[in-house]
């Protein structure tokens, strides 16, 4: 079983792959969740999470996923996300990605002092199951995020991650071919 570990404080991003099941360190700079309950009787574990998570998200409608996504937000992001009721969360499936499933998740803003935690995030469910490629992508993403050249990494879990939402638009096919 493999787990992601790392990202302490302001130091250089450090990610390790281990072959032993290991709980994440308590001082993670980025939240980490090691398992996720899909329903009362079944638990997706890190060993099968990327494949099972992708299958689960592909087989359910966004409205059916609302409570599961909110549960994941509460577990990984914590804070105000743990206080939100499912019916007050807005979830939009973001189209245009090549392979991953991406969701825009928004919760109500409670007050001005709620600034320490974003009320809108991107949830990315990885389709890649090759651990080496996943690790490479995560290291590159983390490096860009830590240097301010990309969206912030808000939390990771086996099978996906939460990213900062930066309002933007999709690049059209015409724009790509004209460059």
TrEMBL record:
The keyword Cytoplasm does not apply. GO terms for molecular function: choline kinase activity; ethanolamine kinase activity. Keywords: Lipid biosynthesis, Lipid metabolism, Phospholipid biosynthesis, Phospholipid metabolism. Gene3D superfamilies: 3.90.1200.10, Phosphorylase Kinase, domain 1. InterPro entries: Kinase-like_dom_sf (IPR011009). GO terms for biological process: phosphatidylethanolamine biosynthetic process. GO terms for cellular component: cytoplasm. Pfam families: Choline_kinase. Belongs to the choline/ethanolamine kinase family. This is Choline/ethanolamine kinase. The lineage of its organism: Eukaryota, Metazoa, Ecdysozoa, Nematoda, Chromadorea.
């Amino acid at each position: 079983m493999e787990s992601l570990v790392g990202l302490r404080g302001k130091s250089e991003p450090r990610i390790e792959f281990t072959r032993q099941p290991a709980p994440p360190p308590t001082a993670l700079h980025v939240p980490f969740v090691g398992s996720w309950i899909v329903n009362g009787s079944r638990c997706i574990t890190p060993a099968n999470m990327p494949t099972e998570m992708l299958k689960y998200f592909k087989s359910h409608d966004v409205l059916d996923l609302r409570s599961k996504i909110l549960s994941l937000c509460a577990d990984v992001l914590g804070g105000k996300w743990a206080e939100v009721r499912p019916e007050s969360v807005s979830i939009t499936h973001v189209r245009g990605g090549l392979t991953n499933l991406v969701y825009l998740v928004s919760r109500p803003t409670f007050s001005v002092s709620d600034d320490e935690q974003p009320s809108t995030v991107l949830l990315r469910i990885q389709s890649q199951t090759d651990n080496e490629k996943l690790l490479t992508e995560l290291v590159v993403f983390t490096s860009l995020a830590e240097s301010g050249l990309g969206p912030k990494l808000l939390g990771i879990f086996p099978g996906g991650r939460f990213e900062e939402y930066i309002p933007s638009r999709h690049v059209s096919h015409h724009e790509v071919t004209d460059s």
